[in-house]
Input
Amino acid sequence: MRRWSAAISGVVLSLGAAVAWCSSGVGTGPRTSLLPGGAGIEFGRDVRPILAERCFACHGRDAGARKAGLRLDTREGATSDRDGRGAAIVAGDPDSGLLIRRVSSLDLAERMPPEGAGLTDAEIAVLRSWIAQGAAWERHWSLTPPRRVEPPSVREESWPSGSLDRFVLSSLERAGLEPAPEADRFALARRVALDLTGLPPRPEEVAAFARDQSPDAYERYVDRLLASPHFGERWASVWLDLARYADTKGYEADRERTMWPYRDWVIDAFNSDMPFDRFTVEQLAGDLLRAPTHDQLVATAFHRNTMTNDEGGTDDEEFRVAAVIDRVNTTMQAWMGLTAGCAQCHDHKYDPISQREYYRLFAFFNNTQDADRADESPTIPAGDPRLVETVERLTDRRIALTKAIDQTVMAWDYAEPEQQTTPVVRASEPRDVYWIDDEEPAGSVPYVDGATAPWTWEKGPGPISGERAMVRRAREFSQHYLTDAPIGMVLAEGDVLVAHVHIDPTAPTREIMLQFHASGSWEHRAFWGQDLINFGSTGTTSRARRGDLPEAGRWMRLEIPPEAVGLKAGDEIDGWAFSQQGGTVWWDAAGVRTRGSPRERWRDSEIAWIEEVRARGGRGLGGEVSALVKRDVSGWTDSERRTVRSTYLRSFNRAARARIRPLEEELESTRMTLFSYESRLAQLPIMREQMDESRETHVLVGGSFLSPGERVERGTPAAFPAFPAGARRDRLGLARWLVSPENPLTARVAVNRIWARLFGRGLVLTEEDFGTQGTFPSHPELLDWLAVEFMESGWRIKPLIREMVLSRTYRQSCEVSSLALELDPTNRLLSRSARTPLPAEMVRDQALKVSGLLSEKLGGPSVFPPQPEGVWQVVYNGAQWRTSEGDDRYRRALYTFWRRTSPYPSMMTFDAVSREVCVARRVPSSSPLQAFVTLNDPAFVEMAQGFARRIVAEGGETIETRARFAMEVALCRPITGREIDRLVALYGAQAAWYGAHAEEAERMATDPIGAIPDGGDAAELAAWTVVANVVLNLDEFLSRP
Amino acid sequence: MDPRLDFFRQVTRRHFLSAAAQGVGGVALAGLLGRGVSACAAEPVVRGARAPHFAARAKRVIYLHMAGSPPQQDLLDYKPRLNELNGQLCPADMLDGERFAFIKGHPRVLGSPYAFERVGSSGAWVSELLPHFKGVVDDVTIVRSMHTEQFNHAPAQLFLYTGSSILGRPSMGSWVVYGLGSEADDLPGFVVLVSGGTTPSAGKSVWGSGFLPSVFQGVQCRSAGDPVLYVRDPQGMSREGRRASLDALADLNAMSAERHGDPETASRVEQYELAFRMQMSVPEVMDISRESPETLSMYGASPGEASFANNCLLARRLAERGVRFIQLFDWGWDTHGTGPTDDIVTQLPLKCRQTDRPIAALIADLKRRGMLDDTLVVWSGEFGRTAMNEERDGSKFLGRDHHPHCFSIWMAGGGAPRGKVYGETDEFGCRIARDPVHVHDFQATMLHLLGVDHERLTYRYQGRDFRLTDVYGKVVPGLIA
Output
């Protein structure tokens, strides 16, 4: 038994007061919770917590850590005889098994557990009675699906307003307690407004509610709050902690990323009362729904809130894996209240998730396209809904046009024209034949300043030929050109090159140049004006001056004899460039003056075209067609025939081009508009599945991406309901599994989270842990009843919240009786309303609202309220805090730009979380730094100044009425004479002092809010600012009533 | 009125009276400065002792972090072999299985441009870049065999300070204050001072409280601007005005407490009183102009600057006033050699000039005040640097890339041996040859010197007991005097 006698703990030193305080209230707490007057031993409530806390680390699920081959988490393990040593537990006989002997042994070498304090007598007694009663084993309570329990009967039948209250009252009565009296209307009005919308009510709303004698006054008051758009803001801020929502990527550079469209999606989801099952499916797998809407894709940004590491030299795969791990942990945490992360490196010691099962879950998330890339791809444009709508419309149009062009080509009824027999005759008089007129030469690729781009065609000063002309507007050198035209312009004897130019007299150019490409060379240039464009050598045919700039303000004809630029009859011009040095220049109608007859049969005849392009070796046609035209036509397959035909029709055939050209032009302008709109939209990272399912998942040994072990397939842990047969084994299937009625946890976790926000603590205190290490529910039947109600009523959150806040339990006052203080010190039994400190968001929002400064604008990009200089100092990232102007300075807290490595300091002081990982519950703390924020943070000083101005403007004429107004607005209740007197005294002293200190008065009244309004008095406003500052710091103001 | 409520109100009232009678103090107050947590809605449960587990050698820690990581080969780990092979391709086995942040291809060995000499009774080799440090070398233990698992700044800093490279765990200072509380009545228990113009790579997470209550997070005190965020009264408010408004606040809170009888109201009043006193104590401790000219010049400190020298002097002042964990970060040690602002020829000597004198002064000053015995001073980066020249994009400036397999730190006072060199690296300063000290071992040893068993300083979160050393770490006896 050496193994059992290892390391006896050191002597426990006496506790200093300071030290003892450290651990108080940190509380996940002991889970043995024999309710006063409670029933007999229950395994889940009374026994398992002891075993879990004291035994499972060495005698639990983790086979790797198991000592002495003993496992106490299953009945089989605990009652079987191990190698003749006897069983740990013999049901019905506590004294026969080893367990009771070992835990109660006085010999430290034998006692279990070997380290730390031994079991208490009470704990041992629980184990004894449980074994004596037959050692009944139950699955951990949270693994058993919730079942509908009949609400219990109660003695005080007049109290409950619904089933919820019956559960609460029943446990109070068993404990010998009675509920607290109902809170007064004022407290209730403020409490429920804060809980539902995160904002206090206006005094007139409170007054109206307090006066309303109708029986449904409170119900109607609540319904108005539920319908308020601020409801979504309040509840979104709860979900965003779980979603680890932030505006930056995390890690070293912690650069900005666009996530706010997702935040707005969450707000909308709560406001529209999206059922929680849909809320789940869209966030986890919106991209896998059939034809997902834009909003459903936005929802998937939930799992793109993982961090991305841009630091130099990082292994993208390492951080991609870290992101996938975070997705598994977050999903299990947010929906099932489980701490799956333990199983990343080894079998979970306490909960039924083996390491292999962990990676089976991992596999669901391991096939998305994102891979820790700096550009965050894949993304979608998101943001201003009107912009998004425009982009969607333009995208649809773009797709439709592309399709229309394809269809035009495909459906074209082409017939080869009859063979032309008339011989080619030379015309007696020369005439112009244009190669470039109204569009680029057939099949050529246009360039603008070095990049492929369509030329700019406009009506301009009225084209010389056709319908439009080319134009360039430039400050310096600029050009548009084409090269490698499949069919060029062959020069005949006596031909003269021709082009037309129109120089804008209001934006004159300094030089124009024409360049011709023939036989693979651009060294054929003619220019007019100054010799600034330094291609070729001046004075040669590679840069031949043809005169001064043509007259501006009218179309001028340019003629260039081919020999002037080194060309001769028989040369084929297959490229042409129009260049200029600054200014605005129009070009049109470029080609030749010729006596010859143009060989343009190929514009109408495919056979002629094939001959032409074949003679040119298929130049400029692209690989496949180029190769085909060099081969004999008779050898083409049908599909090859179709390929050649469609190329011909699409780019060369005169009649087809006439039909296609307008479509192409609309497509091009649609593309340009789309681009300009898209660039104004943010790129929101979303989830997208990889096209192929190539990424294998392996168990990662020790959680390291460098140590892949056994290969695993997607699946859910065996302890939970089976994955439905036939369901898709992808994220969508997983999401549906989470919200299936058989899932024992999702509904419980969801209702418990809402309960905790409304009642100050969860029915399961450890909101983040429903496993064996978590706390047993204070009211298990109530939790189940709520969970079942929630599911059966279609997972609707607003009705659930309504049910809770209409209950008598919720409406209790926070007054505590001495008996309740004794029997229910932590309010576990709900013997009163919880008076809790306000969360960080409400601390800001409430003060903003009361001060009259609050902007009630919903949604949009995150904002930058005032923050002290120098708080943002981030390495390798030049981002600056740019304080928002106007209304955006006064937005609700949840819109504040959230930088993970440097979160908004005043909110962190009030226990907001940094949003690096999913957090289910904030731990409230109390620190003098909090006082600094609400007393001195310039943002709060500004609110006090705003409030002071409001007090003077709206608070009546006397000091007394103003003091009363200030208190009523802040506290939403009638104010006592003593309270007024105290504020009046403070005001009097301050007004006197500021009256004698003009400079200080000016500062106190205006810095930072700005100049005193017309007719205002600095000393008066300064003194009211001091008063307002006090009111905004009252304990009552900062507490939930 | 219900007599039971009346009873409770009496309790509350007494609470107020006693608080007023004592000035501010007592148990509830202890909760405000990192000594405890407001119970609020959580279950008030004491889970095991947080007293020192055994006699402490150190009462407090001053941690000097050279953010970016100094090159050990140029400061404390003398490697003449590098100079012999300077400019040659490094041996191929040094590249086996290595990943570098920036080095590409086959890099060349980089000797140190600096002369070393043996100093002190331990005969430790010290670079010419640290002339003042040579004078205090007999008070320190140089550890040349530290190693870590991370080779990028943010994860490596997180690993050093939280025991995990993933964000979200409490930092070393938070753990220590959570475990031992603070001795300072009107100062935070965990103070952070930053110099070099920017916070470390991992941002404020390296002094965050992670899942510990936020009261344990480090409080950044700034030597320029407000020393603590929002500590200053609004423009135009006098001290008397603040006093008068806090008096009114307390009176109104008392009236309100009579109505609902919540003892938390009393601790709120105390919280504000403490804040009021901190408004005096924090600027006072942060005001180094009160130091003698001799002391100022000893540190090379000048009032009003945000310098490392000032921060060293502030560290001593904070230590004197009972602050438990004082964390300094100095940015600018990431000497890759991409230019003159991050090479080992210009930048490194500059950083040494900025830090060498104040560090030596801090040790001497603590010693002459009798504080070195129970103050542990630690100097480190987050990892080491390569024996090879980085030559990023063909840079002509000399510099070294990140290197996790060994780096040098030192410890002074607080129960660390005096005048000792611990551990050894191979001839290239590339791998550890003797007595490796893993980051978790170092953390365990530091806690041990503070009288804390690293395996028993735990916090239950999401169903698991977490600790600074994760599930690893062993105390290194050779680092204890």
